[in-house]
Model the fold of this input.
Amino acid sequence: MSAMADAAALYALIGAVGGAVVGAGGAVLGPLLLHRRQAAERRETLLRQEERERAQQRREDDLLRRQQEFDLRVAEADRRVAAEREEAAETRARQSAVTDRLRLMRSTTRAWHLLLDDTLGELMRDRPVDHEEFSREWRAARNAVNDAFDAALHDGLWFAHSRAVGTLMGRGSMLQAIRRNDHGVDVTTLGEALSSATYAVTQCVEAGSPLPEELLAQAQAELRQLRVARESLGAHIVGRLAALGVEVERPGQGSAP
Done:
């Protein structure tokens, strides 16, 4: 009986100790597992947060890249528009300059021609013409024509009386002007016609009235040749300007060429 009682007591003690140990282990292990689970949840939350932040950063980077690309396209478009406007302005300026030179050539040759016509008309009406005054007037008209055709060298035109022709031919600028315009026009015929008509009218002025019929006929013939030469040059220049898209008054329209 005593042995059995001792065994029962021992088992009871072991059970009590085991229960205490299990209880103590549970008291320690429970919080430890909870802490680990909470730490894992925090890590997972942190990872999700970091992923959201990376995704947000990628979106922001993509938006920035797109904005930069858009800004570059806008800047390039602005540069193209500015370049096109500048080119258009330069084209308009060139066309305007060519038009101005055309008008100057036409107006100066017309003025010289009209001076000769009017002078001969005065003589035919038996009105006296002062030789010195006429000489000053036609020389001034010639200088104006020379100035106009000096400028016309830019357009591949050269004139028999142009002061710059010799210099330009000597240094090769004439050939450069021709290459730039793909062609050149020799206006020597017009220059010779102006010179011949001026000489013929001068002879009439010196002869006075009544005009010798031979001098009158010669002057009238030279003036007709001058008109033909002026009309030929005017038609050529108008055609060139039309090819450039510049609208000009054609010879025979409006005032005389």
Q: What stands out?
A: The longest helix spans residues 2-124. The CA atoms of residues 17 and 23 lie 10 Å apart.
